[in-house]
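#lab-general

N.A. 3:47 PM
ok so I finally got the sequence cleaned up, no stray characters, all 155 residues accounted for. can someone with queue access submit it? mine expired

B.Y. 3:52 PM
send it over

N.A. 3:53 PM
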Amino acid sequence: MAAEARTYIGVGRDMDVGAVAVLAGIAAFGGMFAILVGAYGLRQARRLSETGVRVQALVKRHPGEARKESAPLRPLLQFVTEDDRVMEVVCPVPSTRRRPFSDGDNVHVSYDPADPRNVVVHGRERLGPDRAFIAGGALVVLLSVTLLAVVIAGR
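B.Y. 4:20 PM
back already:
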């Protein structure tokens, strides 16, 4: 009976290492995905800022804002493209107390000529969330690798 218990414990131990390896692998995959999402966001913002068409956009109050909803809606940005199309897109960044968007203001935006709905507002790129995704993803990958190394070393 004792030999059977030792064999069972040994199998359980191997299964624990396997389970931890799977868990660490899934977490590492999620961390890598977060790194890629953050890097893509930073790349898109930089690409639009550097190579996009720069125009002035008119800030317009969102039509649904008159209802006084609990969360303030992002304003609309209206601009004219190089091919004389009038575009009206939702602002990619929210208005803040320090730097509010007021109805009738003009802001500088860059848009992608292939898809004018993709815009970046100059001076308000908000790169922090993308950098947080990269840092958080790197931390998760590091913790996953560390966990796997500790489990394997303790085996």
